[in-house]
User: Fold Transcriptional regulator, LacI family from Mucilaginibacter xinganensis.
Amino acid sequence: MGSVNIKKLALELNLSAATVSRALHDSYEISTETKQRVWALAKALNYQPNHFASNLRQQKSMTIAVIVPEVANNFFSQAINGIEEIARLHDYHVLIYQTHESTEKEIALIKRLLSGRVDGILISVASNANDSEHFKELITQLPLVFFDRLYEDIEAITVTTDDYESAFNATQHLVDCNCKKIAYLQALNNLSTGKKRLAGYLDALKNNGIISDEALIIKNCDDENKNYEQVKGLLITHKPDGIIASIEDLALPCYYACNDLNLNIPADVKIVSFSNLKTAPLLKPSLTTITQPAFQIGKEAATILFSVLNKKDIQPNETKVLKSTLMIRESTGMG
Amino acid sequence: MGSVNIKKLALELNLSAATVSRALHDSYEISTETKQRVWALAKALNYQPNHFASNLRQQKSMTIAVIVPEVANNFFSQAINGIEEIARLHDYHVLIYQTHESTEKEIALIKRLLSGRVDGILISVASNANDSEHFKELITQLPLVFFDRLYEDIEAITVTTDDYESAFNATQHLVDCNCKKIAYLQALNNLSTGKKRLAGYLDALKNNGIISDEALIIKNCDDENKNYEQVKGLLITHKPDGIIASIEDLALPCYYACNDLNLNIPADVKIVSFSNLKTAPLLKPSLTTITQPAFQIGKEAATILFSVLNKKDIQPNETKVLKSTLMIRESTGMG
DNA sequence: CTGTTAGCGCTTTCAA
DNA sequence: TTGAAAGCGCTAACAG
Assistant:
């Protein structure tokens, strides 16, 4: 709180506060000479504008909020990176909040944000999503863009990836590798993201005349150990020769379980996972991944949000779908 | 901007704005009955206080800033996670900024933050640190805590890990594994973090009667490919049997180079890296790591910052040093 | 081109 | 226990 404010500058320069304010904003109404004087003194005294005052006055905050389930997640941290880049371009600040996959925290957060604290929101919703009620009011009050994870019953701007197609292609890839029994590790069951991935898997099977089997579909749960036990049980009981992990965290138990059961990847069982893990190629053996363009998604979502904030004409339910990349890395499993 | 404000509540309740404000803050001066009425209406109309107005008035922002080199980094994203947890406990908001390892961006940022936008700052400085001048002013104006990466010439509160000891122990570990020629991949050369790690390595060598060799020390550069080439060159020319990577990103070129040169890890060369990579145990072969308690560091740093904000008695140069963990994972290199 | 005035929404004296 | 009034720092309308 450098107590040097506009009033002080005005006093020192024998000008009015209004003139100083205008000069600082490089207004066309102010003479070059006056501007120079103001700028010089502002610099000399290291004047820093008080954002709260100007926000209060202008009813805008030059701040956006990003709400994600977790920051410590390869996808989200990269997306935030992209968002941050665009925000800086617009001289905006970025508030980051985590829901830790809890809708309750999401609701509490959104309530807090309705106070005009931010001009817009970028959100990827919590996985235990059930009730989208809290968004109904929100979207009438604040520009909002959903990225990656969204509520289907809310008409809003969304930036997602080709979840259906990429799961479909991944499954087809396993079929092409002669897998006969392809299991699926399901997550985000409540969200369109999860539903589409599952649908892609199921349709790809059907397309190849393979009858899907409920027993080959494992539902993710919060407990890491339980996930591990489930996958291990699956491998023992049903001996699948292919597995699709619908989120990164579910690929890990596959590796551990295969190791414990002396199963060879990919000789005995091939694994494909949705993942933004940088070191996927270095895993033992390399993990074949469906990689979402996280950084790009962040950039796109932020760009659209700023278009709305700047009143560019954007459809209120504009949807952008980016492409994921299937990175096939099959090794013999011996190396 | 729910246009329901204190004035509106006051009008509706036939009270003055002052009374409503006091009631909302549960002031002892207000009758229970009035409080009840105010709370009821506030809830009914979904009143949300305007932070900017109250911040302006109270000269505090209920917001802290976190400045990190990158969000998409296993250490920093986990640290942010810890910070966020503590901030929520105190009902504070968290602004996140990235410097992308550029001191210039750091300086620009800090200037922006001097406007009273935040009540305190948690920072891990950019790696090309050279000039700490911009902090000299900052620390006189705002409570600030350095975590992990700091400027040595600034008297400030710091939360770090045992960089010297952990590098020392890692080197000793390699010596104990019969390594005779231990290389070091140096990073963060300008920072105490990097200097201490290097010193730990050098002292451990000396302690074992091993003469250190400049040629075995490779300096990190921004270019990934160049790092790879350097490491490859090191392996070809000097054939080290042990390598310490002082940051996670430098472990990767080791893996790639060894692979290209048909060198077996750890049979031909053992690798230890500072790293917070969750999948380190799954790498081909497993990576032995020095893991910093990132989440804990974030929590500690934030906790100390809030102690300062709440005027608890804290030494102006309190330093906290947490312990890293050496996670040894040696495999035959055949699996 | 510059100044005057008013007010953003809230909190805090001071007075009743 | 409540109200009136002032002001945090800034900017926008209006006037000159």
Remarks:
- Chain B is about 45% helix and 15% strand.
- The first helix of chain B runs from residue 6 to 13.
- The radius of gyration of chain B is 26 Å.
- Residues 5-7, 17-18, 21-22, 25, 49-50, 52-58 of chain B lie near DNA strand C (CB under 10 Å from a C1').
